[in-house]
Amino acid sequence: MSKETTKEMNQFRSEKGLTLIEVLVSIVILTLVLVSFMTMFTQSAKTNQVSEEIISATYVAQMEMEEMYNKSTTGGLQQTMTDLQTTYPDGFEANPTEGKYKYEKESDGYLIRTRIKREPTDNRLVSVVVEVRSSTDTSKLEAKMETKLLWGN
Fold this sequence. Notes:
Layout: H1 3-14, H2 20-74, H3 77-87, E1 92-95, E2 100-107, E3 110-118, E4 125-134, E5 141-150
Antiparallel strand pairs: 1-2, 2-3, 3-4, 4-5
């Protein structure tokens, strides 16, 4: 090799720049970072959707519970159960001797199941359980609320 050729090769090696491997490594690192962020954004969107569904179902349960509270302050238990049986004839079940009542209704895309049970220690004390399920998948419980109400005037 001549001195001139060696000099040219040394000059070529000393030039600043990126090799193909450096470019590929930087692309891989950038891809990994972008995939991480995309996964985070996707998971965040799913979490927001689930939270929105829970809030909506809880709102429906709260509205039903408030309706039960209103009924408890405005009339007797037997009259209220008679009214509910008239309003929801297909979804109403009653066992007056045990003080247990249950009815179902659909509202806002949800199936609402309400169970009412008179407490044996005090005829005015009533346990109310409201379950909210999706109308499309009734096996999935979306929200549930329980309370005890002092029924009647």
